[in-house]
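Below is how a single chain appears once it has passed through the pipeline. First comes the sequence as given, then the structure the pipeline wrote out for it. We keep one example in the README because the format questions we get most often are answered faster by looking than by reading.
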Amino acid sequence: MTPIELKECQTKIEPAIRQAGKMLKDKFAIFSRLDAKLKSEHELVTAHDLESEKILMEAIRTNFPGQAILSEEAGNNNVDSDWLWAVDPLDGTTNFSMHNPFWCISVGLLYQGQIVLSLIYAPMLDEFYVARSGEGAWLNDKPLSVSSISSGKVINAFCHGYNEEDIRRAIKYFEYQKLHNFDCRQLGSAALELAFVAAGRMESIAIPGARLWDVAAGILLVKEAKGKVSDWQGGEWSLGSKDVLASNGLVHEQLLEILKSL
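Resulting structure:
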């Protein structure tokens, strides 16, 4: 794709992301956790996840007919296309339900299996992250760059999928980091945590059991901000990768050694 085409894709879909974000921000102020539902033992869903998803999917279908969509709540639209939109209409639903402002909308566009466009919007923070393949990454139109911290005050984050194995591996990683290094946090939104790595606000995030709609947009952000992304064995991340490690690059090898030992 050319830069012009990527910018055009962004221009067409960004208004829907902002519309969904405004709706969610309005609902956030009045939402009651009693209205949330369990869709699995460890996952909540709200009517507003679905409302946001509807806005986004309608915009994609209207502007990009015939392209594939993979969304957290609706699943795959089963369209055969070189193009795939990976959509999380509300990443951080649990945070949203408890009136924690750390949540976002995440939209990533893939072409032939490669992430080419990333859009992450955190309405409560008034932050809109963008990355276009080969062009760079931005936060509210200002260029992003990963941090230069390599030791001492390193802040690592973690997230995890929802099967027992992924949770156990995440707990082991958290335990090791808390006992041996400065700090390690689970902030509750993988997409936004990846964006924070890209913005230099923390040095890494490790995610066992990563799902494409959670990480696609954030992975490109980190790469375009000159960070590093791999699987937990140090291999290049791909659509078939189960786990993700994203970092500023300076702490990457050290973290891989920890992950391989778990």
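The radius of gyration is 17 Å.

See the next section for the split statistics.
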